[in-house]
């Protein structure tokens, strides 16, 4: 929907890597080897970051600060991720959708229970906040309404700068 409005949108890298590697190399999936998976997505996330257009609005479906939250969830050392997060700053406002119990689907690409997904969301939120980002909660709704809400709020943020 945001893309239809003429904005630059970068799709979720982690999902792209999961789909690509699921059958080829399942050992690199995040629930099997978090560190290996992170190396794969960092490379692609940096490519997307570098492809973003300066002086225009870019939307990223997931961003590098989430590495901190995932490390916390997985119980691995997050310090190795801090430099890459600091070297690639995004706008300080982050639109965040908390998992919704009515629509959450656990599947092969998302093997976490709803309860785990809520814990993950908390860790991801913390990762952003700890690196100076402001969380803008997006209420779950029909996709077109959510996109319209995000657009309005993004315009308000741009005007406020």
Explain what the structure shows.
There is one protein chain. With 161 residues, this protein is mainly alpha-helical. It has one domain (8-160): Rossmann fold (3-Layer(aba) Sandwich), CATH 3.40.50. It contains six helices and four strands, in the order βααβααβαβα. It has a two-stranded parallel sheet. Helix 5 (114-130) links the parallel strand 3 and strand 4. Helix 3 (66-74) packs across helix 5. The longest helix is centred in the N-terminal third of the chain and has 18 residues, at 34-51. The mean pLDDT is 92.
Cross-sheet strand order for the largest sheet = 1-2
Whole-number tally of structural domains: 1
Radius of gyration: 16 Å
Helix content: 40-55%
Q: What is the oligomer described by this structure? A: single chain
Q: Tell how many strands the DSSP assignment holds.
A: 4
Q: Which spans of ≥5 residues are poorly predicted at pLDDT below 50?
A: none
Order of helices and strands: EHHEHHEHEH
Terminal CA distance reads 25 Å
Q: Could you report the average pLDDT, rounded to the nearest whole number?
A: 92
Gross morphology is globular
Sketch the major β-sheet. Answer: 2 strands, parallel
CATH architecture: 3-Layer(aba) Sandwich
The percent range for strand residues is 5-15%
Number of helices: 6
For this structure, what is the CATH class? Alpha Beta
Secondary structural class: mainly alpha
CATH topology, what is it called?
Rossmann fold
């Amino acid at each position: 929907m945001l893309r239809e409005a003429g904005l630059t949108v970068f799709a979720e890298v982690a999902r792209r890597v999961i789909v690509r590697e699921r059958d080829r190399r399942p050992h690199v999936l995040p629930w099997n080897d978090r560190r290996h998976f992170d190396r794969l997505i960092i490379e692609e996330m940096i490519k997307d970051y570098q492809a973003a257009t300066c002086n225009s609005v870019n939307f990223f479906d997931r961003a590098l600060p989430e590495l901190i939250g995932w490390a916390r969830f997985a119980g691995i050392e997050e310090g190795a991720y801090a430099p890459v997060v600091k070297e690639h700053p995004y706008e300080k406002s982050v639109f965040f959708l908390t998992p919704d119990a009515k629509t959450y689907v656990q599947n092969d690409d998302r093997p976490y229970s709803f309860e785990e997904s809520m814990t993950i969301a908390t860790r991801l939120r913390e990762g952003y906040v700890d690196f100076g980002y402001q969380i803008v909660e997006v209420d779950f709704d029909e996709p077109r309404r959510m996109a319209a809400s995000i657009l309005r709020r993004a315009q308000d943020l741009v005007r406020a700068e």
